Amino acid sequence: MLKFFISVAFAAYSLHPLHISVCDVEYDSQNKSLEIIQRVFLDDLETEIRLDLKQPELDITQPDNGLTLDQMLKAYLFKRLSFTVNEKIMSYNYLGHEIEGEAILCYVEIEKVKKLKSLKVANSILLDVFDDQVNIVHVEVNNNIRSMKLTPDNRSEQFQYE
After folding, report:
1. Within 13 Å of residue 7, how many CA atoms lie on the same side as its CB?
2. Which single residue of 4, 13, 64, 140 has CA 20 to 30 Å from 32?
């Protein structure tokens, strides 16, 4: 149900400025992996990438700075999004992106997660740009969904499983 309300919030963006991102994490017990989709408003993301790269005129969808959008997204996510699985900081694979309306969806995966005992998510996407930024993280394990609300004052949370 919460996912529905977040989707409506994304759709209503043009009516009311909103600073929110949504990260969906799903544990795939068959493939022993975490499949992750990070959704963020494209214009807000562009604002922060422009600041990070000190390129105020940058159009991230058509960059002319020698980098591709995927290269910029990968570097950005690695700085702003991290996962600790079973007390171990995990590296993840950036798989790509797609643009969906006003949002950009970034796909990443963490492989070789045999058993999920704990998951800590640190998500500082846009938290340094917008004081009212909220990063919602939904974690689905065995068809059970739990959610976190990350803000400038609370940039990470951890769930225990078993």
Report:
1. 6
2. 4
